[in-house]
Structure formats: structure tokens, C-alpha cells
Amino acid sequence: MNKISEDECSVVDKQILIKLSNLTKGKILDRRREIRKNILLAALSQYQANDTFEYQGLIDDIYRLTKCRFEKEQVLPILSNLENEDVVESLGEFTYRVTRQIEIPDIKDSMLPVWNEFLQEYILNRKIRYDPHIHRNAQVAFNEVILKIISQFTTSEPFENQVESIPIENLNLLIKSVINDLYFSEDKFKEKLQELIFEYLTSEASKNQNLLTLIYSCYGALIDVNLLKLEQEFKNLDIDFSNHVRQLLLDTNFIITLLTKTDSKHSLSVALVKQCNKSSIPLMYSSFSKVELNNLIRSVQTELATFGVTNRRSPSDNQLILDYFKHNKEHQTSWSQYSAYLDTWESVIQKNWNIQLLQENIAINKDSTICEVVKIALKTYDEVTHSERVNNDNEGHYRQKSEESYNHDAYSVAYISKVKLNIEQNSESKPYGPWFLSYDNRLSAVNKTNLMKINKYGYVIQPRILLNYLHTFTNISIDENEEAEFALALLRYTARVAHPKLTLDEYSQLVAIKIGIGEENTAILKEIFLQSPLIEELQRALTDKNSELADRKAVDILNLANVQEMMEKIGFSQKEKRDYEKHLERLQSAIRRLKNEQEIKEAEIQFLRNTPTYNYYQNISIQYNGDIVNIQMDSELDSTIKQKFTAIIQLLESEGAYESNIIEPPPSKVDRTDIQNYLREVSEKISRSPVAQGLKDILPIISSTISIIKCAI
Length: 713
What we know:
Strand content: 5-15%
Low-confidence stretches: 1-11, 572-580, 612-617
Distance between the termini: 86 Å
Number of helices: 30
Shape: globular
Strand order of the largest sheet: 6-5-4-7-8
Number of strands: 11
């Protein structure tokens, strides 16, 4: 048999992975010799009885199937042992004959318990008409979907600190594609099968134990294969890896996945922080990440506080809004309750996962050289990728980072670099960590192409890669429940559920929040939209994820001449179900307010779009006569008032109003009345004084904020 080159193969053969999952059991680090034997047996199972082979051909087959390069000195002793077991016979000159067929359970055998679990729970128990002959392709489709998910594990080295490429981004499309490629005599069964497979793969862990067992077994087999590759990398594979991590600095994108259960990475993130807590690995976040996450939360709160204020992203792409929908559906959580939960995120992560705020200032305690390397590399990466998307007419699918994000990432990585250097200088050993823990592929790419040239283990690590190490190289035992949790995390992470667009129900719910009539009136608002002649235009805007256009169409609908008549008709048809008169009055009042304030709001939106993005804090600081003046807002203030007041203060500061003594600073502590009085004084001062146009442009925002305060009193 000819020797094959390493370039001929790129992934572990999924059939061998399934077979190895049936062979390799027990504690991973205690069975390397057994792993080699099992891999060799799996390769021999490809031969028939009486087939002959040379040892070099077997080595090539092993590499082709597993990407493991066995040495002659490792293969020959195993073959000698197999001679004693009457599995092979030596013919001399390093040639062997298979004396009996190696029987290893194949894919069908491994998949059968999983199929039976699905068949029993989701088809038979639900009295769905199923005939194993007529619907024989149902099992074929089911197996193919599961195998496509498992095969994703083989596309990536589990211990390589690399750019992440595992996920299937849209599980529903995958299932639909597989089923459509097969013949089904009944379209209704075909559609139902698609729904049931999707439900099975996204259900609670207690309903798919056989599936989780298979996933964990295949994961273990992949780890087994790669452990042999690591023998040359690590002098001692029996290390406790947690001792070499030292510290993890968490990126904002990682913290968000902990807070939002709808995120496909939530289960993986939770599994990782649990393992870190068991291993006593300190988990930290910086003040930069705190500001970044607060800004993300404030931007969502601002978007849902005022009608017509929309981000460039559709709400269907905002994980916080999607998570709110889930909480509302399952627990009837209102937006105000969910918003309050987001405001307490620091106490949530500290209480649930012992994640602490880093007291050091990473902007000062950083490696300046690494900081510049990261910033330049990230900007270059974004520019190149953006250019490629434009050339491919795909500009809208890529968001470049802001300058604040570049600084956040560069400072974080540069801080880790300095901490690692200090550890290495004060210790004889060179630990693998600490790391900046991030899901950002851009950072991973920069780490691989730039930073690992400076430090062998780099400064950034993907959560899945780190979890693989901790799951494999620790002295902490893992029970069956944790194995199931890990398998579920891997499934959720690998096969993701897409939320392609807002439904009319979801959009109506957001509009109800924005115009202040409460989520309880969502159904009524939806009915108004449905009865409008503009409904097709509204739905087209939702399909295109054009939130700005959708809001404009919604305003047009609510401003139609006959909307009063529509509301009365819809409202009184439901008055036996609820006391609607109060809600109807609130809705009519909100629409009247929309009519009166629309021009001001549009001017405000346009102004903010042309103004740099500002950070929103509960407590803000300004410079006045060279001194720092701190302003504390009453904690009982409405979030909308807080956000608008903060924006006004920062806009005034950016226009030099405080440094030039044009405007006096507000009191050190303000409540609703203080803010209203202060804004009136500022408005009068700007109106009466010869000031720059930039300050005059702020007047509509001040006016609308004063109106909001009046309505809130």
C-alpha cells in the first residue's frame, strides 16, 4: 500500500470516530496504550478476513482515518500482541494477514438507541401515524442529521487554540435540507418529521439521554485520538491543567452568554465557569468590559424607551431582546422586570459564578507594544474583511468594531501579556495561561497569526478549547450528570437555532413597550396592524430586518384617520375577557402623544445619528474649570430619563459648554425635579445667548426630555 501524504486528509473519519466511541471507556489519561490498540483495531476493521497488509500501509490507514501518525515502534508491539490473540498472523518481512474479521459496532448500531428514543417519545407516544415501511426514510433522515452534527467535531482539533469554526448556524435549515433530499410520500408527515427532529434536538436534557450519551462518547473518542498527538507537545500528560491557567479575564461577549439563556453558547459558558470554580481558577472582568456591557444594555433600554429610536441591527439579532421574549413567554416577565435584571448583572455573575471585578487598571497595567500590535492587527483584519464583503456585494453582513472596542480588546490582551510576563519572570516554570477568554474569532485570528509568535501559548483562548483542556487534564472527577451537561452544551453550541426575523407578534410587543401601553395590549396592537392597508409594507420591512422602516410604517398605521374606530371595535369585542377601557384610553393617549412629538423625535434621532456614540452611566462626570465634577442620579429615576439626561450632559460637554463657562454644571446629586429645573435653565441659557450651532441643535432633545419628565410626574 502506498504511503499517503498528510495533505491528503484534513478531518477525522466520522465512521472511525463512532467506532472508537464504542471502544474507549474509562479515565482518559490512564488509557493511552489502550487507545493506540483500539485505534489500530478500528483501522484493521476496514479489512476482510485473509486480507494481507504491510505495517507501513496500516500506519498510513491509521493516519488517513484519525490524523494520528503512529511510529513503527508503536505499531509492531501491538501487532505482536494481536498475533497472540489470533487476530493477525505474521507472514514475515513485516507483512501480516487478518485471520478473522474485526467486529466493531458500526454507525447503525450506535445510532439505534438514539433513534428508538426519538421514535418512542416524539412519534409513538404522540399517536402520530407511522409505518416503518412507508416512512422508512424517516430513520435515514434522522441518522443523517445526527451524523452531520457529530461530524462537526471532527473538523477542528480539540486542543488547538484556533479560530472557531464548528457551529452549524441554522439547525432548522440543516434538518430541512436533509429531509428534502429524501423521498416521502406524504408532505404532512415530511413537515411533521422536520418539526419533531428540531424539537428533539432542542428539548430539555432529560428527554434525550441516549443522544447525549452518544455525543459524549464521540467527544471522548475525538479526545482519545488527539491525546496521542499531544504526547510530543507535553512532557507529562498527567498534569493538572487548572494549575497552569492562573487567571482568566472574561470578554464582554462571554459574560453576555452567561446572562442570556437563549444564547446558543450559554450552556457551554456555564459548563466552563462551573469547571473553573471547581478548579479554583479566578474569573475576572475589567472596568472596560463593565462599561462596554453597560453601554450594550443602555442601548437596548434606550431603543425600547422611545418609539422610532432603532439601532442599525434588527431586534431579531439582539440577544438581549430575544432573551426577554423567552422570559416573557415562559414566566410572563415584563420588559421593566427584565430591564431591572439586566441592571443587576454584576451581582448576578458574582453570586452565581463568583466572577469578580478586576481592581487593577488595565489601561495602565499593560504591555504597550502588545497593545499596538493587537489594535493594528484588528483594524487590518476588519478593513480586509469589509473590503472582501463589499467586493462580493455582501457589505451588510459584516460589522466593523468601533474605536472603543479596539481599545477594549487591545488593552485586555496587553494586560494579560504583562501578567503572564510577570509570572514567567518570577517563576521557573512557564504556565500556559493566563488568558483573555473570548468568543471573538477576530481576536483568535490575531492571536494565532501575531501573538503566538511572541508567546507560544498566546494571550487569547476560545471557551470551547479551554473547556476541552479542563475537562481532560484535571484531577477533578466528572460524574454522569456533568457528562450530560457537557454533551448538552456541545450540542447547543454546535447546532444553533437561528432567529431570522421578528414575527408580527414580537414586533407588536416591542411597539407596545415603546409607546407605553404595556405588553398586555400586544394582541390588540397586532390586530390594528393586521386590519391596516399598510400591513404588507410593515411585514415586508420585518422580513427585510429593516427596523427603521418598520417603525415608520407602524407610526403611519397608528396615525390613520380610522384608527380610533378600529381600536374601539377591537377593544369592545374583547371586553368580556379584560377591562379594556383603561387600556384603550392609554393607547389613544399614546397615539396622540406620538402625533404631537413625532417631528421633535425625528429631529432628535437625526441629530443623534450624526453625533458620536456616548456612554451611558448611572453616575456621570464632567470637567468644569479644570476640575472633575461628579453627578449622581437618584436610583429611583426612570431609566429613560437617566439615559436622556446622561446623553444631554455628554453632548453639552462635547460642545465645550462647561469648559467655556457657558453652562453651569448640575448639582452633585439630582432627582427628577432637579433634572427638570436644570434642563429648563440650560434651555433658556442656550436660547438667549449667542452660542454655537452645535449647542442649539441640542435644544429639541432637551425639550422632548422635559416633556417625558412631565408625563412621568
